[in-house]
Amino acid sequence: MTNPQFTGGAIDLGALVDRNGAGSAGKEQGSSGFEPFISVDEASVEQQVFERSMQIPVVMLIGTSRSTDSESLKAQFEKLSAGQRSFMVAYLDADTAPQVAQAMGVRVLPTVVALAGGRPVANFEGNQPANELEQWVGALVSQIGPQLQGLPDDGVPEAPAEDPRLDQATEALNAGDFDRATAVYDEILADDPANADIKQAKATVAVLKRVQGQGEPEDDVDRQLHLADREFVADDPEAAFDRLLRLVKAEPRAKERLLELLSLLEPGDPRVIAARTRLASTLF
Fold first, then answer.
1. Quick check: 65 and 93 in contact, CB under 8 A?
2. Given 128, 195, 196, 203, which is the most exposed site by the fewest CB atoms within 10 A?
3. Which 8-state DSSP code applies to residue 93?
4. How many helices (H) and strands (E) does the chain have?
5. How many CB atoms are located within 10 Å of the residue 97 CB?
6. CB contact at 8 A, 234 and 253
7. CA atoms within 13 A on the CB side of 136
8. pLDDT of 183-197, one tens digit each?
9. Is the model more confident about 161 or about 6?
10. Is the dihedral of CA 78, 83, 88, 93 positive or negative?
11. Domains of the chain: which residue ranges?
């Protein structure tokens, strides 16, 4: 992915904005009928994408049904955006709106452009793994979202009641029964597969279980992975990240463990951003 820290827009949308009338980009939009995932065309892109991006970040996916990567990324974004109001995804079919795709400088399908305040702030080309996509969107929401107007409060549904099964998971954790806690989280995820908080809780339990149930391994790589887990649990994630980053180029398991631990912190955490930047530099 490019522009992971959302420092500037690599794609110039000025021509498209001018053609459709930039003067209306700051109009207030109501929240009625808000949908987190929509399809847009040349006629609706200004109102649905540029104007909405004055309120919340908008992820614009330019793809084609002819591309399996486009369809995969579209399905991932539909799942990731469901049931939330922090960002919106707008899908544009490049086959039916080639002029828009051309105006946005699209070279590869799929291409994703994140917009805020009517301007591009980040972009990437091609498909992405689900965990990296979730991190990317999380960083967009946490870093850019607070700078925007936000959606009006009217029509916001009440927060759902907390799942009573969480009490069972807490009891299991207090008793040191990590397997039971994991089983409870699996039950919840079976009903709500997109629940990011439960996914994070389950991953945290996996780390705790490894630390509690394993002595120091004899194999050097396993030992380094184990020490990274212990450093992370001991509230020293930077030490854990440093240890794993030294290994990622030669040892795939170190990269997997690093990505797992990174997912347990907020995407906008400076330590996460620094580690992900170093990871990209190390690998590429």
1. yes
2. 196
3. E
4. 12, 5
5. 19
6. no
7. 23
8. 999 999 999 888 888
9. 161
10. positive
11. 14-147, 165-283
Dmax (CA) of the chain: 66
With H, G, I as helix, E, B as strand and everything else as coil, classify residue 113: strand
Q: What is the pLDDT of residue 124?
A: 93
Rounded Cα–Cα distance for residues 212 and 275 (Å): 25
DSSP codes, 161-183: PPPTHHHHHHHHHHTT-HHHHHH
Q: Which residues contact 58 (CB under 8 A, 6 or more apart)?
A: 49, 52, 87, 88, 89, 90, 114, 115, 116
The distance from CA 131 to its chain's CA centroid, rounded to whole angstroms, is 7
CB 77 within 8 A of CB 130: no
Burial 187-208 (b: 16+ CB within 10 A, else e): ebeeeeeebeebbebbbbbbbb
The tens digit of pLDDT for each residue in 53-83 reads 999 999 999 999 999 999 999 999 999 999 9
Third-level CATH fold of 14-147: Glutaredoxin (3.40.30)
Q: What is the end-to-end Cα distance of the chain in Å, rounded? A: 11
pTM for the predicted model, two decimal places:
0.49
pLDDT value for 93: 96
- Band (26; pLDDT cuts 50, 70, 90): very low
What pLDDT does 25 receive? 35
